[in-house]
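Sharing a chain and its predicted structure for anyone who wants a worked example. Both blocks are below, sequence first, tokens second.
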Amino acid sequence: MKITDLKPPKGAKKKKKRVGCGPGSGHGKTACRGTKGAKQRSGKEYGPGFEGGQMPLIRRIPKRGFYNPFKKEYAVINLKKLEKIIDKYNEITPEVLKKEGIVKKDLPIKILGDGELKKPIKIVAHAFSEKAKEKIREAGGNFELIQK
């Protein structure tokens, strides 16, 4: 057997339907498209949500909410989480928080005021809540904003 003797099994290959080649072909005149309507015209296609003129599903179901492209997303940390690492460091920065595993995502950091600080410490972050600022000041520490 040679490679030239190989051929597909009978019925595996179908002849291409030759449309629009006159009445003798059996596919002449309208070229198997039928008469009238958008599917018979050239260049007319229906969109992915088209349902034959019926009100499409995407327009039938109610819409809720909105997307805000200007929303600032923060990795939020409460003061009570910082209490656990306060003894190891004299300054808490985003790098320290990542190293300790408190912050996992690469987002700007915001400090919130839930919890108490027992010792004065400097905290560096992108944003602070008013309550957090107050509690840091009461403990004798200070905070620094990172401009991003």
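Comments welcome. The first strand starts at residue 75 and ends at 78.
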